[in-house]
Amino acid sequence: MATNDDTCIEFDDVVAGYGDFMILNNLSFKARRGKITLLLGPNGAGKSTALKTLFGLLKVRQGRILLDGENIVGAGAKDLLTRHGVAFVPQGRNLFGQLTVWENLELGGITLGMKTTHERIPEVLDRFPRVKERLHSAASSLSGGEQKQLEVGRALLLRPKVILIDEPSIGLSPLVVADVFALLRQLANQGTTVLMVEQNVKSALKMADDAIALESGRLVLHKPADELLNDPHIERLFLGGAHAEPLPTVSA
User: What are φ and ψ of residue 138, in 5° steps?
Assistant: First the structure.
């Protein structure tokens, strides 16, 4: 799939997990620069764990994670944000509910300093007119879709080179999901690398560039997203999981 010239993210024989329980088992894959790569697989396959491990929230027990050719194993979240330009939008709601939209944005740009943050907030709000209308409302009073847009907007304050986003469609209406996906597509077209986990598989495949399927923390498929959309294995990946006949492991 990806070549050395266009590889942004590379997992090389990565083992990681929680305590003594390893979720990622010698995981290797590549994600292309300026493209949307979708991580797929049944529950427990290691999709969210891969994002958390890349962002330094879980310890790598073996292997390397390369970002633009540099090994970032051991880098903390702050370093990844400020030095490497990696932003993480985790699953669920991750806002300060009693603070206003504006205050949540200010906190999102705390590493930038207030002057830069205040300069960038208007450009972020221009992407989310519904959120802009609620600027002085408590974040908890926003709809689920508006809250997710605020989370994404907060990440965009940092003008990241890489966005990791986990299950952005959870709890959102189809129209709001379409808006979020359209934004991610626009960001990728402008050069941002997007690595995402998404349960709304078919809709996500329609907007992604590449699809990577995991099972038991290992790579089982790596294909262009449009090819996988019509692949007969797609139902097995989500319905069969480990109980179905395994796919042949392939290299990235």
Answer: -65, 140
